[in-house]
Write a structure and sequence with these properties.
Radius of gyration: 23 Å
Number of strands: 7
Strand order of the largest sheet: 4-7-5-1-2-3-6
Distance between the termini: 76 Å
Shape: elongated
Order of helices and strands: HEEEEEEE
Structural class: alpha/beta
């Protein structure tokens, strides 16, 4: 009788382990944030943005604080026309399209190198 209970317990334990492993998080299988798009507000010249929040795509390690974007070549309006850095004013809302695995170099404000920024689009 004890042997039968032991076999049943081992069988139940095995089933529970299989079930839990099937339902576990697949964070190690996630793709990079290739399509990560964030929205932010320009608060100072030199592409300093605040109120950064994710619009779509994979989440990244970015928090909602202030950042300085080190990119001046890939800035566009909503029509897709290239614009100059000087066309962005304090208070403008922008969408930032990031490459995978964004790395923040400094803090206060965090600095994001141009290599992690695919494009910046000024919202009208």
């Amino acid at each position: 009788m004890r042997k039968k209970i032991k076999v049943i317990n081992i069988s139940l334990f095995s089933i529970v382990i299989l079930f839990l492993s099937a339902c576990s998080s697949t964070s190690s299988m996630k793709t990079d944030n290739e399509n990560a798009i964030y929205s932010a507000i320009i608060y100072e010249s030199n592409l300093r943005v605040d109120n950064l929040h994710r619009i779509s795509g994979e989440k990244s390690n970015l928090q909602g604080g202030k950042y300085e974007l080190e990119s001046s070549d890939n800035i566009f309006n909503e029509d897709g026309d290239k614009i100059k850095l000087e066309d962005l004013m304090v208070g403008d809302e922008v969408e930032i399209y990031f490459n995978p695995q964004v790395v923040v170099k400094e803090t206060s404000p965090g600095q994001i190198s141009a290599e992690y920024i695919r494009k910046i689009v000024k919202s009208e």
